[in-house]
């Protein structure tokens, strides 16, 4: 481990784009769950994938399928959430916004799912051995339609009304970008916004100028990925104007899904980090893509020859654009300066 890699590991970090299921570690989480559930086929596939030095895009998609097959009851969901939070804490992530869609399974209602995640976050917050603050961003899966989205938002608002200390700070709009029309979901997103929730939207994952324009008009606090952006919107979305939103950039994930051989091939990253664009580095699906936030920092810092102070700016910008309360941001910032040694 060289000096830069060590610096990135030891630096207190802030993760703003982490999908719960996608962050499942194969060895620590998925294989034990598969063994306990007696899922032989899934276990065999996991054993094959874990032995590979690099994972293909097909491997990644297969892992998603396996995870959704395995995590169907409260015990598995609790283990998944606990392990993911511990993994981020181990990587010196001091603030984590964990996102997931409340799933209904044979053994779980959406309310059960939501309550379980909140319970695990509360337990981890109370665990003195874990130096991490966790907040919950509830995801809407566009592929599942407006009716389900409405049901989820109503459930979230009900939960907030019953318990302000439920750790829910925002809403994520994501899912298959080829399914559903963003405009159909605007009323339910507006309802969440009126209730005080911040909004992050997966944007520009495929070429769709009309949708990008509609999202820009909605003015979400943050954008996920933002890869396929029309030229006439780049300035207002990334650099200037009232529409500007923070960009959640996930380098390894983007390289994998865009089938890039090198980080330099990323369509916007170099421009983002050499300008005043409010970009933050994230992992997306750390378990699926076999990465950590420290690795993401290191990859970008090494490739673009960033100084330690410039690397530190990524965490400061992430704090600034987090959905945390003012008080929580102050706590995180103090921790950063106390531990960064800069």
TrEMBL record:
Cofactor(s) this protein requires: Zn(2+)
Keyword Metal-binding: yes
Adenosine deaminase domain sequence ranges: 12-336
Reactions performed catalytically: N(6)-methyl-AMP + H2O + H(+) = IMP + methylamine
Pathway: Purine metabolism; purine nucleoside salvage
Molecular-function annotations in GO: adenosine deaminase activity; metal ion binding
Family membership: Belongs to the metallo-dependent hydrolases superfamily. Adenosine and AMP deaminases family.
Protein name (record): Adenosine deaminase domain-containing protein
Organism: Mucochytrium quahogii
Taxon lineage: Eukaryota, Sar, Stramenopiles, Bigyra, Labyrinthulomycetes
């Amino acid at each position: 481990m060289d000096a830069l890699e060590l610096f990135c590991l030891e630096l207190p970090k802030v993760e703003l784009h982490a999908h719960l299921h996608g962050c499942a570690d194969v060895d620590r989480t998925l294989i034990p769950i598969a063994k306990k559930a007696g899922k032989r086929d899934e276990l065999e596939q996991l054993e094959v994938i874990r032995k590979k030095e690099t994972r293909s895009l097909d491997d990644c998609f297969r892992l998603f399928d396996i995870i959704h097959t395995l995590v169907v009851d409260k015990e598995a969901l609790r283990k998944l959430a606990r392990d993911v939070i511990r993994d981020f804490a181990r990587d010196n992530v001091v603030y984590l916004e964990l996102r997931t869609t409340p799933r209904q399974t044979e053994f779980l209602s959406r309310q059960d799912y939501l309550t379980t995640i909140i319970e695990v976050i509360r337990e981890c917050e109370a665990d003195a051995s874990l130096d991490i603050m966790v907040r919950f961003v509830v995801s809407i899966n566009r592929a599942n339609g407006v009716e389900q989205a409405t049901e989820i938002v109503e459930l979230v608002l009900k939960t907030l009304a019953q318990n302000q200390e439920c750790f829910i700070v925002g809403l994520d709009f994501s899912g298959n970008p080829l399914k559903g029309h963003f405009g159909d979901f605007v009323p339910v997103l507006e309802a969440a916004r009126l209730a005080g929730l911040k909004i992050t939207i997966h944007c520009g994952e495929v070429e769709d100028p009309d949708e990008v324009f509609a999202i820009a008009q909605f003015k979400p606090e943050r954008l996920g990925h933002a890869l396929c952006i029309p030229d006439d919107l780049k300035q207002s979305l990334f650099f200037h104007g009232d529409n500007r939103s923070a960009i959640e950039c996930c380098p390894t994930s983007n390289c994998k899904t865009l089938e890039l051989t090198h980080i330099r091939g990323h369509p916007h990253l170099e421009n983002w980090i050499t300008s005043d664009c409010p970009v933050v580095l994230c992992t997306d699906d750390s378990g699926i893509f076999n990465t950590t936030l420290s690795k993401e920092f290191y990859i970008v810092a090494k490739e673009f020859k960033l100084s330690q102070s410039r690397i530190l700016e990524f965490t400061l910008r992430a704090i600034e654009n987090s959905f945390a309360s003012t008080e929580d941001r102050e706590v995180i910032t103090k921790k950063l300066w106390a531990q960064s040694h800069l």
